């Protein structure tokens, strides 16, 4: 049985009251706080650095899931681990040595994962499954919130689920399968049916007046999916 987790992205929160936004969404039923880091180099946008993570850490009883859309990645991964991240994911294109970067994150006491853009092949997983706690499939091109879900991501989610199930059946352990981009009440069940267990939602939650109602609606949709 898969456990489903909802991870609101604070990229869509009100930055003028970020600590309260984190507390509010956790009180509304969020499982994870998703933290999008963009460097205006790997992606064409600039967001939050380690100081933001350190600032919200006291406001979050939930794990903080830091998604690094940066290049190079190693120094920032270490800085976010120190700032209070629980999970750190990065894009293989952002690292010169993927195995080493995963090791650095794990050695810093965090869970580690790889992120796959719509056109990034899953073959990067071939030699590093033993170091992964999470695989994140992007269902939009990274850089901006509020984009529409790219339908062919569903096939990639299915393929990633097959890889995870085959690996864990043989070696044990647990690897989460997260999806980020355009996830909302209307499609979350379809994304779950493809194999995802962790769902990043930004504007779909933070763009609504009642966070609890949206998260409850998402859970109702997920309850219809056979885990």
Low-confidence stretches at least 5 residues in length (pLDDT < 50)? Answer: none
Distance between the terminal alpha carbons, to the nearest Å? 5 Å
What strand line-up does the widest sheet have? 1-8-7-6-5-4-3-2
Strand content: 15-25%
Largest sheet: 8 strands, parallel
**Count of individual beta strands:** 8
Number of helices: 8
Number of domains: 1
CATH class: Alpha Beta
CATH fold annotation? TIM Barrel
Question: What integer is the average pLDDT?
Answer: 96
Task: Please state the overall shape, judged from the principal axes of the Cα atoms.
Answer: globular
In helices, the fraction of residues equals: 25-40%
Oligomer: single chain
Give a quick rundown of the structure.
By secondary structure, this protein is of the alpha/beta class. It has eight helices and eight strands. The protein has a single domain (5-222), classed as Aldolase class I (TIM Barrel).
Task: Report on this structure.
- The model has no long low-confidence stretch (mean pLDDT 96).
- This protein has one domain: Aldolase class I (TIM Barrel, Alpha-Beta Barrel), CATH 3.20.20.
- It has helices spanning 18-27, 50-56, 74-83, 98-107, 153-171, 188-194, 203-206, 211-222; strands spanning 5-8, 33-38, 64-69, 87-90, 111-116, 134-138, 176-180, 198-201.
- It has eight helices and eight strands; from the N terminus they run E-H-E-H-E-H-E-H-E-E-H-E-H-E-H-H.
- Helix content is 35%, strand content 18%.
- The chain has an eight-stranded parallel β-sheet with strand order 1-8-7-6-5-4-3-2.
- Helix 2 packs parallel to helix 3 (74-83).
- It is α/β, with parallel strands linked by helices.
- It is an enzyme of class 5 (isomerase).
């Amino acid at each position: 049985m898969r456990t489903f987790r909802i991870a609101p992205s604070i990229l869509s929160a009100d930055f003028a009251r970020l600590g309260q936004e984190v507390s509010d969404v956790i009180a509304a039923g969020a499982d994870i706080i998703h933290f999008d880091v963009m460097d205006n180099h790997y992606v064409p946008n600039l967001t939050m650095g380690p100081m933001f993570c350190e600032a919200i850490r006291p406001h979050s009883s939930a794990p903080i899931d830091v998604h690094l859309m940066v290049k190079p990645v190693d120094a920032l991964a270490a800085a976010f681990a120190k700032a209070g991240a629980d999970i750190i994911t990065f894009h293989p294109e952002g690292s010169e040595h993927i195995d080493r970067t995963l090791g650095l994150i794990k050695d810093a006491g965090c869970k580690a994962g790889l992120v796959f853009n719509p056109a990034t092949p899953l073959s990067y997983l071939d030699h590093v499954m033993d170091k992964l706690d999470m695989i994140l499939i992007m269902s939009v091109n990274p850089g901006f919130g509020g984009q529409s879900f790219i339908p062919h991501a569903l096939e990639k989610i299915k393929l990633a689920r097959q890889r995870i199930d085959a690996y864990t059946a043989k070696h044990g352990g647990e690897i989460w399968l997260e999806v980020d981009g355009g996830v909302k009440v209307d499609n979350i069940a379809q994304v779950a049916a493809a194999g995802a267990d962790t769902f990043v939602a930004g504007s779909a939650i933070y763009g609504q007046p009642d966070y609890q109602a949206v998260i409850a609606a998402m859970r109702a949709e997920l309850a219809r999916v056979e885990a």
